[in-house]
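Translate structure to sequence.
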């Protein structure tokens, strides 16, 4: 047994020495390949810029008539004169209708892009805030050292989900004749982008500004109005029936001056008649 132990001990020592030599050679190789030493973390200087967040969708201050909206954006880590390298290492977003912060990137990239699908968004006005964390290094060539920095940026957009069609009502059309245009007396319960009407079931005609339905001949008519809200929902009014009355002709006017002239001529004629009768007697 003693010989056996004495035979094993030198072998173990040889293996340990070989391991130390391998590890030492590794560190020596690392020091030759990368002679720079780490000197800690520092705040970013004035010439180091935060990541740039560019959001393509949802559009800011835009209304949508669906509860599914894509979240499309990209993040860029800009270069600076003082930083040797910079990357984006984490990206998250927060939506006001969600309780948790969502991570969409954990790992260094130079210019990551994202195309996410948001669903089940409730109606109303909402906001999304995207946060991008960047990092990089400052290298000191004289001291053969480097320091790290971290820098962040955020971007917020607001948008509206509106899946409800507007309510459209038409006021009664009264005292309508063939001599006057018809005003589109329409009431809408929200902001709208377009109004059109269909007369007697014909093709829609867009109403612009203070325009009116043009002159119509006497007869029976019906009209239906359609209203598009800002999100693109279409509201339809009830169909209103109305009658265009025939315009009665006005009586021929008699000028007072002409009547006075006729009266004068009559008086003169009577006087002459009396005068001639007296001459005969």
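Result:
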């Amino acid at each position: 047994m003693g010989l056996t132990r004495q035979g094993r001990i030198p072998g173990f020592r040889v293996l340990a020495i070989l391991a130390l030599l391998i590890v030492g050679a590794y560190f020596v190789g690392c020091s030759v390949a990368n002679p720079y030493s780490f000197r800690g973390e520092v705040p970013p200087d004035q010439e180091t810029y935060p990541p740039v967040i560019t959001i393509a969708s949802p559009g800011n201050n835009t209304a949508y008539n669906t509860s599914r909206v894509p979240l499309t954006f990209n993040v860029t880590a800009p270069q600076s004169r003082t930083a040797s390298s910079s990357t984006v290492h984490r990206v998250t977003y927060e939506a006001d209708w969600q309780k948790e912060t969502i991570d969409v990137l954990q790992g260094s990239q130079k210019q990551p892009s994202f195309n996410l699908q948001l669903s089940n968004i409730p109606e109303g006005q909402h906001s999304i805030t995207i946060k991008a964390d960047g990092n990089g290094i400052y290298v000191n060539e004289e001291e053969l050292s480097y320091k790290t920095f971290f820098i962040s940026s955020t971007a917020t957009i607001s948008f509206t989900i509106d899946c409800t069609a507007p309510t459209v009502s038409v006021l009664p059309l009264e005292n309508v004749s063939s001599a006057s245009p018809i005003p589109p007396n329409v009431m809408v319960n929200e902001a709208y982008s377009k109004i059109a009407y269909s007369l007697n079931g014909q093709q829609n005609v867009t109403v612009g500004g203070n325009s009116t339905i043009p002159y119509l001949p006497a007869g029976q008519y019906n009209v239906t109005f359609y209203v598009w809200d800002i999100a693109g929902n279409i509201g339809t009014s009830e169909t209103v029936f109305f009658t265009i009355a025939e315009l009665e002709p006005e009586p021929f006017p008699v000028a007072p001056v002409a009547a006075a002239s006729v009266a004068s001529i009559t008086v003169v004629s009577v006087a002459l008649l009396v005068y001639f009768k007296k001459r005969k007697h």
